[in-house]
Amino acid sequence: MAVDRRFLGCRPRRRLDWEEDGEGRAVLLRPKLGEGRLGRWVASYFKNPYYQIRFDEFGSLVWKYCDGQTQVSEILEQMRERFGDRIEPAEERLYEFICKMHRAKLIEF
């Protein structure tokens, strides 16, 4: 599958708060009752008002670079540098992962 070159110039930006676990992996914090004012207020009475989405090392690397400044092409370079041949076909994998995150409203462009 050929990836559109325009995609490589995109600069994805995270939409959720997140934290790092003890192994350096990203843990996304998605509000249980949505991002609206009422949902946040009701969720504040919960012990934990967030769903936690845990990424593996691949997802964590991509997530950390989704800062709104870094182009997808730069993320791709970092993936290849860190994971080598394990990540190939890197362009297709990154494209699919970023599309899934966008559909799930975890990131925006």
Q: What share of the residues does DSSP label as strand, in percent?
A: 15-25%
How many domains would you count in the coordinates?
A: 1
Average pLDDT rating: 91
Summarize the biggest pleated sheet. 3 strands, antiparallel
Q: What is the gyration radius calculated from CA atoms? A: 15 Å
Please state how the strands of the largest beta sheet are arranged side by side.
Answer: 2-3-4
From N to C, what is the helix and strand string? HEEEHEHHHE
pLDDT < 50 stretches: none
Q: What structural class results from the helix and strand content?
A: alpha+beta
Overall form: elongated
| Overall helicity | 40-55%
Number of strands: 5
**Intertermini distance:** 22 Å
Total number of helical segments? 5
